Amino acid sequence: MENNKLKIYLAAPRGFCAGVDRAIEIVKKSLDKYGAPVYVRHEIVHNKHVVESLKEIGAVFVEELEEIHDKSRPVIFSAHGVPKSVIKEASNLNMIFIDATCPLVSKVHREAENLHRNGMHIILIGHENHPEVIGTMGQLPDGAIDLIQSVTDAENYNPKTDKNLAYITQTTLSIDDTSEIISCLSKRFPKIHSPKKEDICYATTNRQIAVKQIADKCDMFFVIGSRNSSNSVRLVEVAQKTGCPDSQLINSESKFPIDRIRNCKTIGISSGASAPEILVELFISKLKKEFYLDIEEVEAVKEDVTFRVPGSLN
Question: 273-294 burial string, b = 16+ CB within 10 Å, else e?
């Protein structure tokens, strides 16, 4: 073992949020109730470890309902939410379906419907082709929602309607980047309607706050999470912008960067809201083989949020 001492700042909260916990529990309880296989449309959450562990107990992941040959088997809709057309398709096929959409994403869906009902044209701040964005835009007729991804988009946006404008946001965005876009829209459209309560979810916000508190103390910063996990990628960006330019995502394909860590005295670790704690523990166990570790957990906010699973599964 190298006689190196390595200081680790471990961000808290990190890892699973209440929406992810609920979605995974829905898959497990569905398997208990209906037996295997149970189908899941899209990855239940964006994490390979989670998906593989659920496959082992009988979950089968598909991208579209047409891939399910036995329509008598239940299908679960992922935590990211789905367009209304998918729910309608499942109903038309007489399929049993269980909606594992995160309640905070469902809140944004209801918000969009209410704004549309009140005659407003909606701007969605989010990332194109992310499943949550596809699901939110799919709550309303085509053309009812315009997507804005950046400040540049906001600066160049020209509404094709004279309706009053309102904005909503994807739940897993960077707080700082989103506030810049909102600021731009508010300057250009002073009467734009804003959500009564911010759409970015509590878990995304809390994990970003925790990273901000320790990033500037670190030589390197690591976020455990998948490349297609929006909130995990945002955590890397937050660490880079708030004091640790050498920040990176560690996913299942990542090479363990031991040579670079040997040049560090202090590193930071966090994990995305869809990454299980075991992945953080595995990363730290690899470090223990090379260093004498001094681990300090820095808790920014205490989380005690829980979401119930549908009563039909209890």
Answer: bbbbeebbeebeeebeeebeee
Buried residues in 234-244 as b, exposed as e (16+ CB within 10 A) = bbbbbbbbbbb
Kindly report, residue by residue over 115-169, the tens digit of the pLDDT: 999 999 999 999 999 999 999 999 999 999 999 999 999 999 999 888 899 999 9
CA distance 145 to 241: 30
Q: Which pLDDT value is given to residue 253?
A: 86
Structural domains of the chain sorted by starting position, each given as residue range(s) with its CATH number in brackets: 4-16+202-299 (3.40.1010.20), 18-99 (3.40.50.11270), 103-200 (3.40.1010.20)
**Strand 4-12 relative to strand 291-299: parallel, antiparallel, unpaired?**
parallel
Q: Phi, psi (5° rounding) for residue 291?
A: -140, 160
Establish whether 132 is a catalytic residue. yes
Selected catalytic residue, list 43, 56, 111, 132:
132
Nearest-5° Cα angle at 303, 249 to 234: 25
Question: Which residues fall within 8 angstroms of residue 83, CB to CB, at 6 or more apart?
Answer: 134, 135, 137, 138, 139
User: What is each CA distance from 79 to 20, 38, 101, 271, 284, in whole angstroms?
Assistant: 7, 16, 4, 18, 28
